[in-house]
């Protein structure tokens, strides 16, 4: 079954399936979404700060594999000024996201060429998507992100950490992950380098499901430790080449 059919099929139960799989942590899907939103807002804020010429216009941001757009309210309500676009292969899921977040520009596509011109965005991100993309297509997926982001712009890829035993448990028990192929931080960083991105950085996140400022600060302090439930790789589109 290919990815578009897969997620259209899970659209009714997507949130409850994930909530059930992460229930042992004592947190809901929304907690994990909110924490990732905090990291993403930090990364996007850095892009905004570096380009003073952008101050007067909103940051153009693309979410690749947006699903239901659960993270979008956090981004829209943040202090960042952004024009958010989002794309997914699951057309019926995108329709639902559009109803929930009418200010976001949603599109669906076939999973190969992103439906945007070159250099259309200042930043693009993708969350929990690459493990649903067949591995032979990973390089093309990254090349498409690079094509649509302007030189100097930024990308971020959030993924499950296959080393973490609780992550393994969640992926094994969550119906939406039945065809998932997890990729570790090292492998993804190498793919990002092969796709000719620059300034590649990474950080492990979500070491604890405990909420509160102290726990979140702890999370940030130990981002080098490869035990977080998830991680992200961020990079820049180089100005030349
Ligand atoms: C686990 S969901 C994550 C959704 C959302 N990013 C989130 O964090 O809530 C994975 C999503 O990736 C989408 N997807 C799978 N293959 C894709 C591709 N090649 N391009 C874009 N989206 C894809 C699926 O349709 C699904 O909505």
UniProtKB/TrEMBL annotation:
Pfam families: Methyltransf_25
Entries under PANTHER family matching the protein: METHYLTRANSFERASE, N6-ADENOSINE-METHYLTRANSFERASE TMT1A
Keywords annotated in UniProt: Methyltransferase, Transferase
Full protein name: Methyltransferase domain-containing protein
GO molecular function: methyltransferase activity
Any GO BP: methylation
Methyltransferase domain mapped to chain residues: 61-153
């Amino acid at each position: 079954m290919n990815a578009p059919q897969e997620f259209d099929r899970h659209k009714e139960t997507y949130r409850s399936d994930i909530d059930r799989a992460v229930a042992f942590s004592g947190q809901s899907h929304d907690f994990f979404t909110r924490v990732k939103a905090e990291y993403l807002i930090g990364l996007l804020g850095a892009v905004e700060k570096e380009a003073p010429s952008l101050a007067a216009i909103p940051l153009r941001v693309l979410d690749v594999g947006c699903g239901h757009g659960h993270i979008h309210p956090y981004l829209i309500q943040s202090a960042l000024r952004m024009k958010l676009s989002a794309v997914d292969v699951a057309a019926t899921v995108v329709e639902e996201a559009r109803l929930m977040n009418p200010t976001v520009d949603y599109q669906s596509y076939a999973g190969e060429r992103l439906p945007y011109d070159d250099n259309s965005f200042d930043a693009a991100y993708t969350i929990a998507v690459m493990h649903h993309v067949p591995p032979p297509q990973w390089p093309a997926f990254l090349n498409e992100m690079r094509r649509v982001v302007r030189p100097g712009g930024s990308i971020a890829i959030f993924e499950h950490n296959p080393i973490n035993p609780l992550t393994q448990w969640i992926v094994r028990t969550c119906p939406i992950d039945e065809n998932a192929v997890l990729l570790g931080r090292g492998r993804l960083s190498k793919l990002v380098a092969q796709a000719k991105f620059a300034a590649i950085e990474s950080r492990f996140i979500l070491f604890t499901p405990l909420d509160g400022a102290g726990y979140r600060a702890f999370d940030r302090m130990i981002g080098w430790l490869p035990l977080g439930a998830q991680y992200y790789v961020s990079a820049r589109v180089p100005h030349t080449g």
